[in-house]
Amino acid sequence: MLVVRNLQVRYGRSVAALHGVDLQVAADSVLAVLGSNGAGKSTLLRTISGTLRLHRGSVVAGQVEFAGKRIDRLDPAEIVRLGVVGVPEGRQVFARMSVEENLRAGGIGARTAEARTAARARVHELFPVLAERAKQRAGLLSGGEQQMLAIGRALMSAPKLLLLDEPSLGLAPKIVDRIGEIIREIHAQGTAVVLVEQNAVMALRVADHAVVLETGRTALSGTAADLSASDDVQRLYLGGHAESAATAEAEARGAAEQRAGVRGLSRWVA
């Protein structure tokens, strides 16, 4: 579904952000993208979503394809129409608008009223609180509820591929667990997901495949279970805690048993 080939990105004339990144996302998968601050995770999502130019970034080599079509030269609206929709870091809901108005804004691109109705029903099924608070101003919601609204707004476009940028950021652990469950539900309903996360335990629990970016390069790639078992991932992203690592690995392997096409762990060296 999504193919990123030898992607090289820079900001302005001199700041290189990505150096030859390669990855693939199948139509039936969740890909977790891990890495520390400045690793290039958000730049990757900006390139896929077409918003890179808004941040004075440019693709200097490589390309991004979605469903066989090159998209890194398209504007964001065209990419959304193709079925790629993003949820930015920090939620960015329309604070002065109601919950329902936020959802309507997300559904503007729907082709028919029936499609908008079906999308809204899906959102309300995933997030009942949004139906309960339809008339409330979005800015008065809790952080977790705003994240649910941001995801729900994106789902109003009925995406084929959902891009999530740090959905757990600033949320309580209980809410983070719920966000992870929701991502699984969205995937089970037939939407592929690219999940950028610093919370590696949650990300590897949710994903079936994962990549690790380091200073704009792909450092590791493989199944979520294999990365959970990697000494490097345990040390750098799971805190070196055996219990956390074992939990992430067990849950990732349990999810992987339900999926086909398991591939081995690969390492890229700059």
Short description:
Keywords: Amino-acid transport, ATP-binding, Nucleotide-binding, Transport. The chain has 270 residues and is an alpha/beta fold.
Task: List the defining traits of the structure above.
single chain, 270 residues, alpha/beta, Rossmann fold, 2 domains, seven-stranded mixed beta sheet, four-stranded antiparallel beta sheet, 11 strands
Secondary structure elements and pairings:
Blueprint: E1 2-11, E2 15-25, E3 30-34, H1 41-49, E4 57-66, E5 69-70, H2 76-82, E6 84-87, H3 99-106, H4 113-126, H5 128-132, H6 143-155, E7 161-165, H7 173-188, E8 192-196, H8 200-206, E9 209-214, E10 217-223, H9 224-229, H10 231-236, H11 242-256, E11 266-267
Parallel strand pairs: 3-8, 3-9, 6-7, 7-8
Antiparallel strand pairs: 1-2, 1-4, 4-5, 9-10, 10-11
Helix pairs in contact: 3-6, 7-8, 8-11
Family: Belongs to the ABC transporter superfamily.
Domain ABC transporter: 2-240
GO molecular function, one term: ATP hydrolysis activity
Kindly describe this structure.
By secondary structure, the protein is an alpha/beta fold. It folds into two domains: 1-83 and 161-170 and 189-240, Rossmann fold; 91-158, no CATH class. 39% of the residues lie in helices and 25% in strands. A seven-stranded mixed sheet has the order 6-7-8-3-9-10-11, sandwiched between helices. The protein has a four-stranded antiparallel sheet with strand order 2-1-4-5, covered by helices on one side. Helix 3 packs parallel to helix 6, helix 7 (173-188) runs parallel beside helix 8 and helix 8 (200-206) runs parallel beside helix 11. The radius of gyration is 18 Å and the shape is globular. The two termini are 27 Å apart.
